[in-house]
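Input chain follows. Return structure tokens only.
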Amino acid sequence: MDTAEGRPGPDATTSTTPWELGRVVGRGPAHDPLASVRTPNDPTFDVFLSGTVFLDIIFTGLAGPPTSGTEIYTDGMGCSPGGVANLAIALSRLGLRTSLAAAFGHDVYGAFCRRTLEQQEGVDLSTSREFPNWHSPVTVSLAYQADRSLITHAHEPPLPADEMIRTSGLPRTRAAFVDLGPEMEDWTHQAGADGARIFADVGWDPTEQWSSALLDRLSACYAFMPNTPEALAYTRTDTPEAALAKLGDLVPVAVVTRGSKGALAIDNETGEYADVPALPVEALDATGAGDVFAAGFVTSTLAGWPLLHRLRFANLCAALSVQHFGGSLSAPGWADIAGWWQVAKRVPGLGDIAKDYSFLDDVVPHDPVGAVRRASATIGFQTEGIEP
């Protein structure tokens, strides 16, 4: 990844903000999807989140997973920040002012992830911490036949997010994104009390107990966006529709994603219900697609779009992401979205899609915006000058 080695970083004597820096260094002119709703009294950030950043090493083009005692070769490989970085970068690429609290190791992996997030992608890391004797988490992803296998090496961070945030202070933000399990961090409740909308997701329960007590935490949330297996397990229901109805009693906005079948959602504040199919695409690597979907939904929600448009936009963002490898750096920018829309309007046989997405005429940038960078096989350009 040829990120901006040798280019200027943030200068404390200037008014350059992290997201402005990311666009100047890595991507060119920015598009602000919230421009029409911003006011002088807005919070500093649009979204704040915390979690673990992994170095993801992704191998693609495999016919299948390796079997015992064999070695296989592939010509597809990429490196990118992963874990919570998938969502942070996807949000930032869509123009949201994004801040992340995470631990970083003082090693080549941590330096690569930190510099990619902060300097290339414009994610604010003012509440993050670097720990000299902590090994950065690493995940190897093997992508094959629209599926993947993962191998991860990781240790618990030296400090939980609450302690890092307590030291720096929780920044003002219009929204926050949290993982409900194993338990919500204290900063989430503080953000909600300060007026932030809390968007929540949940990971797979390795115990497969699917405790319903987890759903009690939704009382602090504005929106909840599980996938179908998670939604069915936690609600003890048999269909995505039944799960959505149950979740809709617990949060103002509930979304259930269905992978290649699309997504459905209900917004109790507006009385809207929507059920949309996924876009037909050939997937190269599905890593991070759920995070990119969430970024699209958060962005369009904060922009005040109708629920149907929010679901379709989130589906589009996810569909564009799976056509590239590397979870975080597969996320689309506005140039990708505008480019897809220009083609979709002109390709014969896509009449329904063009009609369904006609709202994009009013939201995509009409002036050129900078392209985003994709994952590549090496992190060597970023290792120069980094102390061991």
